[in-house]
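Hi W.,

Here's what went into the run:
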Amino acid sequence: MPHLFSLPGLSRRAWKVWHRNLTVFIRTWHVNFFPPLVEALLYLFAIGMGIGTYVKEIDGIPYVNFIAPAILAIAVMNSAFFECTYGSYVRMYYQKSFDAMIATPLSIEDVIAGEMLWGATRSVIYVIIMLPVLAVFGVISFPFALLSPPRVPGRADVCRYSDVFYRDFTRHRHAKLSLVPVHHTDGTLLGNIFPAHTAPGQSPVFCTGHLTSHPPRCHHADVHAPFVFIDDPAASGVDPDGNCDFLYCGNKPDEKKTDRVIFNYGSFSAHTGIHPQFSVSS
Amino acid sequence: MTAIIDAQDLRKNFGDLVAVDGISFSVKKGEIFGFLGPNGAGKTTTMKMIACVSPRTSGILSVFGMDPDMQPADIKKRLGVVPQETNLDPDFTCFGNLFTYSDYFDIPSNSAHKRSDELLEFVQLQEKRNVEVEKLSGGMKRRLILARALVNNPDLLILDEPTIGLDPQARHLIWEKLKTLQAQGNTIVLTTHYLDEAARLCNRLVIMDKGKILVKGAPAELVKQYVGEEIVEVENSTEVLSCLAVHNIPHEITGDTVQIATGSSREIAKILLDSCQPKKMLTRLATLEDVFLKLTGRTLRD
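Here's what came out:
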């Protein structure tokens, strides 16, 4: 029985699995090229133009330019994540492709490695497709943007989560997809939408706290701030110096000093069970 | 003759469940070897251990003289596997399935191309060459799986219920192809529920139940040894039963018929006709099915 931490029996045959997935991707290219194009446009309009009307500028940078790298980063992680979970799962469970593959000289480790290599490759392809769209809108600066595709495999770290669950799938057949990576990506989305430091008077108030146990605190509290962003205290590491609690931030109308509150439900849902989506409430 | 597969006291447990309970057998080069048994007998588990996809719990297993735990890739290189479940790649055409599969065996694309076309012809699917596998009938899919198992020119072919759910035409075609492969020197191991298939194809077979091998041998010998040559069937009525008791004829009651296994059906038939007045009577040759039911019982499995 192989030990959990034993070295995997990998070989160069992993590239055969990668090649198989690439062949299918090319065979169905007309379906595969559509989502990254639409995704780029959708995020640009929804977040860039939508939320952007409230935020306008951050440190002198137009908001839509500010989120453009986030759109890329999310695409990278989402495409790798979905390829290595949904895509791989369908191939493994419904198509039984893995069963067919391991009847050949390929080992199960080769198959998993090949799937992960492909997940990362797919992210690169996504970015390559999205870059021209973003370029058309003038929201990225060349030539530095061209450095993003080579950096993608590193950023596609979500794949690595999948590895853990893969071991589960293949060894114990726990057909359960964990939502942890989804939270992670949603957190990243918000983390990228809002800057780490903000100047009072023109940018979001940054709150930390815990919905249920201790009240969130505000930093750089500003009556004119358009947003309150509540993040997980453990993740933020910001020294609490304000006195804004959860009610202050959004739910008590007479004390409300901001227009909107954005909850990072990605982090919160682990504690509260709230659906992992970010939302804007007044 | 060299043993292609050699198993001694082979065992596989899944937790508390004992799937294969210490079986020993050996498969010689060039023969068709069958595993028969009711559902849950451990046939598929045995196939998976031979195919290096399920590690054994204990015992000795050697395939081509190699240990599946130590050299799985070297063994699998020389194996062709037809699984019980259809696991063709739905993202490819018939040709694409064979061609992609060849790549897993490191077959260069030129020869893979040629071989894939040859195999499509071998299983009579050349007119479906560029059709997506989703559009094939059940029989065509099984044929394509057989072709896929042959892309690497295997020395040993492992078939887990190769003709399950097929119509008689498709079954006969598969049988014919397996005979052809045997004539070309392939060794074939198969599991099946169809006793006529086993009797027709297998040189030797084992009947398994509850993880153990009950009997092994050539089909005809097993029939002779465990049942006899012929079977006389009469209807199950009190007159017939008391008449059989009077003449002291051993028999077995199966539903609405009474079966009498015998070496000479004429004598039994004569006695029955003379003194028992059966309404209907049938004499037939004993089959592997009679052996199977005798050894594994008539209780429903699953």
